[in-house]
Amino acid sequence: MIASAASAGKGPSSSAAGRPQSQAQVDPLAGLRRPTDPPWDVYLTGTVFLDIIFTGLDSAPVRGTESWARGMGSSPGGVANMATALARLGLRTALAAAFGDDHYGEYCWDALEQGEGIDLSASRSVPGWHSPVTVSMAYEGERTMVSHGHEPPPEEPAPECPPRARAAVASLEPGKRAPWIAQAAAKGTRIFADVGWDETGAWDLAGLADLAHCEAFLPNAEEAMRYTGAHCPRAAAHALTEHVPLAVVTLGAEGAYAVDGRTGETASVPAIAVEALDPTGAGDVFVAGFVTGTLADWPLADRLAFAGLTAALSVQEFGGSLSAPGWAEIGAWWREIQSHTDQDPAALRRYAFLSDLVPTELARPWPLRRAVPTIGFGRSA
Fold this sequence. Notes:
- By secondary structure, the chain is an alpha/beta fold.
- The protein has nine helices and 14 strands.
- The chain has one domain (about 40-360): Ribokinase (UDP-N-acetylmuramoyl-L-alanine:D-glutamate ligase), CATH 3.40.1190.20.
- Helix 3 links the parallel strand 9 and strand 10 (about 190-195).
- The radius of gyration is 20 Å and the shape is globular.
């Protein structure tokens, strides 16, 4: 197992939501692009929240008392976590979402479109609709969240006809179909799916009807075992390949395991040892890393290692989209890790593929420090 050379620290240091897109700049698909390609690498749809994150809490708030946080940040959340993670890895990302016409919605729209370079031409601003808000309190490596939102507008947020894209990321809901998934798959879009906790308790794969349109399914270990009835996560991954070509099961501190049912190939990559400050959005970042490697035609083990690395980097920062790493973070980590003589040589070889991906001009000191944005200040000219 590789040990991370340093963590991001406990102060308010995170990726700025208004970061210029020019800082992202490795194109992992550069050698594969053709004039006839779809205009977008990845298409997403879902609900955007305004996330407000309180950091620097020593413990959970106590009933009847006032707690002061040493840091605070704000950023687009919800589906914006995944969209930001994909964009920062250099993928051309399109998002269809409804935005409130309040100041929160304006801030989220600007942060995603201008700050991250995400295409919002399929999104819309809804007059009179209040933006959903989540307040997150991070402490002791965990977080507590409180959310508020009004009824979403009709047809929120997916358009009737999704745009052409190489891939799409979908969050499956038990007992529900999302018509855009079948439409996108019919156009040749490769669908990557995750799933949330089944509140019904049924855990019936037949209830995930849209799984039939998916190329890859990425549940966590508990979800995979409950859906398949398997006794361990690895057995669950193999069982899932009866329903989807590629199964990827995340194992928390143990890493991840993947099975390609089409070829029989398997891959297992251990987790990177890091000090986790806030797990918010780590699952989204893992999926984004795996999608990036898959679209770039990397070997299965490299895709799994890259996804785990990006997720590990994200939990060393606070917030959802705030914590999504870009190539500067990846390059800084790789250079720092190689500088330590006590690293396991076999573990270093596992990430050697990064040497051909990260250009030297992205060299940055490690650990990185960025200011946490708030909606109280406009960006300077």
